[in-house]
């Protein structure tokens, strides 16, 4: 099969890939974004129906093109999906959709990438697939009955999708709490919490919490600092809508789930609850098995990098959680990381 030569190949055309495309467009070198999705914005479009961002519109834009609408309001998932699609069109970024990266290896000074739509030889590769790649479900001992509906939060769309009766949401991150809050209107809901909840209001004295973070300099705190390392381990939940529901008993809280048995879930404190539905809001894990360059990863399979720059010349990551700042995996923060990487790209031969 013929291999197409390209100066820079960006794998992933979500918010990180598009931000990188914005800066690559300012250079004369050839580049291409590839993505496995059918449409730009699909990673947002297929999330649960009620999903809204916890960043207001003023903090939900990529470089160069503000998100329209009330800058103090909070956009929904479809609005963001449409914005990303419009962004790619506005800047006429070269994007090839329906293209799955199958394998990637280094050959001499270049990279050979096999995809579902042909092969590429690139001087630079930027992995912009983001932190949400494969749904993660912990391996608990025991087995639940087949009568219990089990889904990951990535598969959840609306309450009517579930069976009648009690629901347990395992995981109390932003998605877990939003889903539990929504379901508390239609189902008896319990929540399994692995560590103590820290909630921050979306607005403080009429201003977005992100406005206050900017004012206090917290937006610029980096992962290299002591404060950055602390915040990474103790990242708060944005929004307090679930707090009164927990106090009123409409969302019943349990500690970490440790065992499954028929329709029972057993918890760390020896309590148990019976469920008809179980939603795993347990996050995602990275999938880099297709990249055949061992020196890019540590013993746990995590990328080795500093601000996205790896030990392998010409190879970069973008859009990782806490890549350099808390905002690195958020729409409004990924542009700074993209601009930083631009200076390290290998020159056109």
Automatic annotation (TrEMBL):
Ranges in coiled-coil conformation: none
Signal peptide: none
GO MF annotations, alphabetized: flavin adenine dinucleotide binding; monooxygenase activity
Keyword Oxidoreductase: yes
Source organism, top-level taxon: Bacteria
Keywords: Oxidoreductase
InterPro entries: Auxin_biosynth/cation_transpt, FAD/NAD-bd_sf
PANTHER family listed in its UniProt record: FLAVIN-BINDING MONOOXYGENASE-LIKE PROTEIN (AFU_ORTHOLOGUE AFUA_4G09220), FLAVIN-CONTAINING MONOOXYGENASE
Protein name, UniProt field: Oxidoreductase
Species whose genome carries this gene: Thermoflavimicrobium daqui
